[in-house]
Amino acid sequence: MSLKGKAAAIGIGELKPVKEPGDLTALGLMARVAAEAIADAGLEKKDIDGFLVGVPFSDPGMIYPASAAEVLGLNVRMLNQVDIGGASPAGMIWRAAAAIDAGMCSAVLCIVADLNKVGDQRPPVISVQREFEAPYGNIGANCGYAMIARRHMHEYGTTARQMAKVAVDQRTSALKNPLATFNDKALTIDDVLNSRMIVDPLHLYEIVSPVSGGAAIIVASPELAKGAKNPPIWLLGAGEYANHSTITYAPSITESPIKPAAAAAFKMAGLQPKDMDIACPYDCYTITVIVTLEDAGFCKKGQGGPFVMEHDLTYAGDFPCNTHGGQLSFGQAGLAGGMSHVTEAIRQLMGRGGERQVKGAALGYVNGNGGIMSEQSSLVLERRS
Amino acid sequence: MSEYYKPLPKPSPTSRPFWEAARRHELTLQRCGACRAFIYYPRDRCPKCFSDKLAWERMSGRGKVYSFTVVRRASSRAFSDAPYVLAIVELAEGPRMTSNIVAPPEDVRVEMPVEVFFDDVTPEHTLVKFKPA
Q: CB of A148 within 8 A of CB of A297?
């Protein structure tokens, strides 16, 4: 049983994120990106018969998929919410392919949209986290990633400059992305290290900025893909893994569940990390990229810091990585932040990267990361010539 | 006495013995009678072998800082008194706990030895924190 070549992405829709939500609503954003993605795929709304949705933090509710499908006016044969944090968008792609391969549906709308709600309006965590984490101030994601970075520095000698390089190179690519939130000013390593320390050792420019936005992807059956308007981007491999939620209780905080997730994706694809033309690793923080490149097998464990210094991670470089700017420069609209890695891989492989197009990109690796290095969903995608 | 405004643990039937011990200034963890693993946070079955033969044991209270961060700007208004040191403490008995290191932030190091410190934050609530050993 494999999902290799069983479905392809044929259309995308993505909004330029905005800092202030204004009069926007999450459901309104969904309608906009859904219309854009369906048109991009060359389909009509009636062709959509599968629906995977991420529940927005800003407008959550029970029985969410049917409610959102009703707002969009969809009639679907398969519907569900995917709740694996920032890994949800990557996780939707293989779930859509699996539903298509099982004959349940033929064109799945995968969608996420959210508003920037700052302050203490974060969604509730489950009882054990309220009981054993919140009283000590382990609230939100910043603290956990800071502790991962601190331990990685201790075990492997990773430096603040190495981590900062990730934000710098991604910003260089963002300058060529009209949709990116931060695309008007280049960054230097010193700019990053001189930005405010938020959670030691992570500085402000190493931490995603919350924005409002949304994105959608149409995943289609081979029959629909073969007649599609856009070059179909085939799913070659997928892998998923989780072994903890709170980082304190992970077997290791520097070696992540990305290792088994990526290994499964590459095994299904019959390919290796070195075969990839582009990489889109989830980047909520700079350290996340370094750990992902190690655990996905792009470099040896502990060598992520030297790796990002030795390689040019920009769209024009020898290791194009998060060529949309990553979430660090694109912005993180709730779960939609994690969709930006998938849409960017699809865009590059379709040859629609504009000024930041990676020449000849045919194979791409995507990783979605949820929670504190918890849920991991890896994809290998291909444009066939 | 000023009002305590940070989140407080609401014990469950599973965890109540842990918090009751903390109020007596004792650190107790569950131990699995089948695989002998120490367990934190409290569970109804051993997360390693799924046995339900769990018993409470008193810990030495000694450990080391596995990792930490100095939170300079907190994600929650309740912790607007930042900076504070949030840490993962690895107990001498093995399990890791989320806690605070009660020390000047500049003194805290990875692998630093620490010992338990019981912070009676309200008359009904005692948090399990650590200080340099």
A: no
Instruction: Indicate yes or no: CB of A197 within 8 angstroms of CB of B72.
Output: yes
User: For residues A218 and A224, what is the distance between their CA atoms, to the nearest angstrom?
Assistant: 11
Maximal C-alpha separation, chain B: 46
Q: Which ranges in B12-126 belong to alpha helices (H)? A: 16-23
Q: Is the pTM of this model over 0.95?
A: yes
Nearest to B67 among A133, A141, A147 (CB): A147
Report the pLDDT value the prediction gives residue A120, as an integer from 0 to 100: 47
Q: Does A309 touch chain B (CB under 8 A)?
A: no
State whether B108 and B129 are in the same domain: yes
Domains defined for chain A, CATH in brackets:
8-118+211-230 (3.40.47.10), 134-209+237-383 (3.40.47.10)
Alpha-carbon dihedral angle through residues B113, A141, A204, A185, given to the nearest 10 degrees = 150
A contact test, residue of B46, B69, B85 with most A CBs within 10 A: B69
Quote ipTM for the complex. 0.97
Q: Which residues of B touch A (CB under 8 A)?
A: 6-12, 15, 40-41, 66-79, 82, 84, 86-88, 96-100, 105, 110-111, 127, 129
| Residue contact A130–B7, C-beta within 8 A | yes
DSSP A229: S
Rg of chain A (C-alpha set): 19
Per-residue pLDDT of B105-114, as tens digits, reads 999 999 999 9
Same domain, B131 and B70: yes
CB atoms near residue A342 (< 10 Å): 30
Please report the pLDDT score of residue A8 as a whole number. 98
Candidates A130, A139, A122, A123; CA nearest to B9 is A130
Low pLDDT (below 70) residues in chain A: 118-123
Band of the pLDDT at B17, cuts 50, 70, 90?
very high
B98·A120 Cβ contact <8 A: no
Beta-bridge partner residues of B28: B58
> Nearest 5°: phi and psi at A86?
-65, -10
| Closest to A237 (Cα-Cα) out of A53, A340, A367 | A367
Alpha carbon A307 to its chain's center = 21
Q: Judge whether B109 lies within some domain.
A: yes
Q: Which pLDDT score, from 0 to 100, does residue B100 have?
A: 98
Q: Are A123 and A57 contacting, i.e. CB atoms less than 8 angstroms apart? A: yes
Of A133, A151, A246, the CB nearest to B110: A151
DSSP H helical ranges for B1-133: 16-23
Are B88 and B121 found together in one domain? Answer: yes
Domain, as residue range, for B46:
11-58
Minimum mean pLDDT among A353-357, B27-31, B77-81, B106-110: which range? Answer: B77-81
